[in-house]
Every structure is written in C-alpha cells, then in structure tokens.
Specification:
34% of the residues lie in helices and 23% in strands. The chain contains 15 helices and 18 strands. The strands form 4 sheets. The protein has an 8-stranded mixed β-sheet, sandwiched between helices. A 5-stranded mixed barrel has the order 1-2-3-5-4. A hairpin with a 2-residue loop joins β12 and β13. The longest helix is centred in the first third of the chain and has 29 residues. It is elongated and about 85 Å long.
Length: 509
C-alpha cells in the first residue's frame, strides 16, 4: 500500500509540474518571464519591527500617513475572495508579511493574471501600509509583479517537510518549508562573527593557509588524496592547518588564527562529516593553562552574545552551564573517577591495561604502549559522561606527537581537550618547539605508519627546518565550530548545522 501511495504522490507531483510548465510557456509567449527590474525597498522584518505595533500605528494613522512599502518574496499562502485577495510572502529576512490585493487598485489585467499564480512563486509588490480588521499589518498593493514562476510545488503541508534525508539533500526546500532551519544558520554566522571579534580584540591576526598539502600533517587523521596534473604530483586535502600556522609563529606572526575547512577521510556520523570547520589559533608566550582560561572566556562570551545571559544553554535535554569555572582533570584522574574498580598503578602498566581493554571489548594493536591503551579506556568509559564543560589534561606523550612534554613527567604532555555534552569540543596544548624532540616523534609516527596505522603522521622535514630557526614558547588550540553550533542551537546531528552535509549520491531515476 505504501508503494502505491508513493506512486500516486509522484504522479500528482508530475501533474502539478506539468501544469506549471504550461503556465510558464504561456508567459513566455507573452514576453512576461523572469523580469529583473523590481527592486524592493523594505524587508518584512523591518516593516514589522517599525510598524507592527498596532497601538503606535493604528489603521487610522497608517491611512493618514500613507506609509510607502515595497517588498519582494515567495508566496507561502493565498486566499482569493472574488475581487480581493490576501497573500502572505516571506523574504530574505525570514519574516512574512501580508499583501492585500484588490482588483480595482491594480493595473488592468494584473489581478486576473494573479489568480493563476501559485504558492511558491516569487512576487514583488508596492503600495502603502494598512492594518486589516484582525489587526494584521499588510501592504495594500497598487503594483504587483510575478518575478519568478516556480515550476515545482512546495511539499504537501509544506510548513512541515519532515523526511530527514530529503531535508539535508534538498536544503533549498528545507529552508523554505521549515523557517526555523534558517535561524540555525543565522546563529552559526553570528557565532563565527563573535569568535572573530573576541580574538581580534586580543590582537590575533586572521590568516589563510593552503588547503592542498604535499604532506598531510597537523592531526592524526586519514587524508583525501588528489592529483595535480600540471605538476604531476599527488596532493592531499588538509587535515589541519596547524603546521603552517606554526610556521607563521616562527616568522614573527605571534598571534594568528584561521577559521578553516578541514577534510578527513573517515566515518560519517551525527558528530562527523568528511569536511568540517575548525578554529585554530596560536599564541606565542602562552601555555596550555592560558589557553584553557581563554577558551572559558570565549565560550562565556559566545553564550552571552547569543542571549544566554545566565550562562545556561539547553542541549538535548541537558542544561549546560557555562557560568562556573570549568572542571579540570587529568586523563588518569578521570579514568579512576569513572572506573572505581581500577587502581592508579594499573594505568601505566601496559599488561594491566591490555587486560582492562579485553574486558571492555576494546580492540588493541600489539605495538600500542600504555598511553594509547589508556586513551582507549578513557574514550570507552569516560568521554560520553562528561556533560558539563570539563578540561581533560595530561594526555600521554605517545598520543600527542605535537605537544610539549610536561616538565615534571615527560611521559605526559601539557595538553588538554575540552568536553561538553559528552563530546570533544576543543584540543589545545603547549606546542613542542624543540626541533630534535619533534623530529624524533615524527620518526615514531613514521614507524607507526609502516606498521599499518594509516592515521599516523608523515615526517615533515620543512617543518623541522622551521623549528630549527626557533619558535617562541607557544600555545595552540583547535575548536570545532560545527560542534559549537550544535551546542548553541540544540542540534542533535552535525548535519543539522551544515547547509550541505555529505550524503551518498541519489540513485539515478
């Protein structure tokens, strides 16, 4: 029965498209198709903000002042009553405003033509403001033009396009059918602007670095490969801009940041997309403690600027509180806190950790040391339980190839990750600026690659050369913009905050 219903729906849609194509054909014969001369002077949101108050602007005042209005937008509903009609249009502001059309107030033949237009068509209208008997602000039009003929009908009950894959795949329809979606991306743009203003107020310089690298580096991730025909060489889409940004610190640009697109040839999930947006910034003469302080301040600023004055943000049924000082724990402290059956001595004992991993059904490799094994236990038993903002510090050196060793314990690094709502939001550390130590760690990464780890880093000789010129003590951090937007828009999936998330191609019809 479902297949029959789908076939019927498809047939009905084809019939409606054919009808609209017929209308467009008639318009072409009349030379009245896709004009580009109408210029709106107002948005619906602006008119509603300035004149929407029926106490300040009652109908008698609007009638006497004859306030002009010129708008353009998509027809989302219409009601025709003989010689008059009411039409709602939505424009770029995301708001909608009503048009009042009366046959005798429009040029000859326009009203009759309008009765053949459809929901979804884009129109322009000019006239004066009025208020209907129900108090709704409206444009009483004396000029009306069909600007774009829509050939495809909006979804049935168009205000509720609900099929999730269709929403992602046809975002243009989603934005029309679900006005709240627009708000997510307006918030995203505001959030990025807040981040820029926050960093630039602290004298950080925004820069751009290459997106195609001859060696992938800056993160433990599997890259996408491409080929440059003219040069005859393979290139990789960047997995991170880190090594280029640190080259700039060497060159004297001591506070730099980039809001960048990264590409990682990894899985797709509610938290992962093959391409995603990161903020990365580097701060000379700062360490990882300074970065944690700065990150707290930045997130509180974002919350405040987005209207969460108390610092509380509701996310998927949890109340995330950015007001108090963020918790700080080392990896080992967190594992012990969430696994009371374990003892501290076990956490640096590879044999004991292998037994723990076996019990937890964690896959392990023979070459892993205690640091990698401990991280696997942390990710399995702790990560998703860190709901309130929490900095996890003291990452093992084995899993932190670009981080500075801790002065008191060289087996761990001066590194942190910030977790909120059970997911990593930021990763930062005091940068490794010892070129010989860095070269040795690159060699260890190469050995891991040779042993089969496709996410291990390459040896970047030019980056080592840059360090040999001398990089000041520096703190560096990456923050996932997409995941931040998820938090501040209460979005369950990363696909909800990407205008065009990755999807498999549609099957050919």
């Amino acid at each position: 029965m479902t297949d029959q219903n789908n076939n019927d729906d498809h047939h009905d849609e084809n019939r409606l498209i054919a009808e609209r194509r017929g209308k467009l054909s008639a318009l072409r014969e009349q030379g009245q198709v896709f004009p580009n001369t109408f210029k709106p002077d107002h948005t619906a949101a602006r008119l509603l903000a300035e004149y929407g108050d029926d106490q300040a602007w009652p109908q008698d005042r609007l009638e006497s002042d004859k306030v002009p209005a010129s708008v353009a937008g998509r027809i989302i509903s219409r009601r025709i009553m003989g010689k008059a009609a009411f039409v709602h249009v939505r424009d770029r502001s995301g708001a909608q405003i009503q048009l009042y059309l009366r046959r005798d107030d429009l040029p000859e033949g326009v009203y009759q033509a309008f009765k053949h237009w459809d929901v979804g068509d884009i129109v322009g209208a000019s006239g004066v403001l009025m208020r209907t008997k129900t108090g709704e602000l409206s444009v009483h039009a004396d000029r009306l033009e069909l600007l774009v003929k829509s050939l495809r009908p909006l979804p049935e009950k168009w205000h509720g396009l609900t099929d999730q894959e269709t929403r992602y795949r046809q975002r243009y329809v989603d934005l029309i059918a679900n006005p709240d979606v627009r708000d997510v991306f307006v918030t995203r743009a505001r959030l990025v602007r807040i981040v820029r203003e926050f960093l630039e107020a602290r004298e950080f310089l925004e820069v751009e670095t290459p997106m195609m690298h001859h060696l992938p580096g800056g993160a433990a991730a599997r890259p996408f490969k491409t080929h440059h025909n003219a040069l005859g060489i393979d290139l990789f889409l960047r997995v991170a801009p880190e090594l280029f940004l640190k080259r700039l610190v060497v060159g004297g640009l001591e506070r730099v940041y980039e809001i960048n697109r990264n590409f990682r040839n990894e899985g797709v999930s509610t938290r992962h997309n093959p391409e995603f947006t990161m903020l990365e910034f580097y701060w000379a003469y700062a360490d990882y403690n300074d970065l944690m302080d700065l990150t707290e301040a930045m997130l509180r600023e974002i919350a405040r600027e987005l209207g969460h004055d108390g610092g509380r943000v509701d996310y998927q049924g949890e109340s995330i509180d950015f007001g108090p000082e963020f918790a700080r724990q080392s990896v080992e402290e967190a594992v012990l806190a969430f696994n009371p059956d374990l003892e501290a001595a076990q956490l640096r004992d590879p044999a004991a950790l292998r037994e723990i991993c076996k019990r937890l059904e964690i896959h392990t490799e023979s070459g892993w040391g205690w640091g990698k094994l401990l991280l696997e236990v942390f990710e399995k038993t702790v990560e998703e339980k860190l709901v309130q903002p929490t900095f996890i510090t003291g990452y093992p050196t084995e899993v932190s190839p670009l981080s500075r060793r801790n002065d008191d314990d060289p087996e761990i690094t001066d590194r942190f990750e910030l977790f909120i709502a059970g997911r990593e939001i930021a990763n930062g550390f005091s940068e490794l600026n010892d070129p010989e130590d860095q070269a040795e760690r690159f060699r260890a990464q190469v050995a891991s690659r040779d042993a089969g780890d496709q996410e291990a880093m390459h040896f970047d000789a030019d980056y080592i050369r840059a360090l040999e010129y001398g990089m000041p003590p520096t703190g560096g951090e990456g923050i996932g913009i997409d995941r931040l937007v998820m938090l501040f828009t209460d979005s369950a999936s990363i696909r909800d905050v990407l205008l065009f998330p990755y999807l498999k191609p549609e099957a050919a019809e």
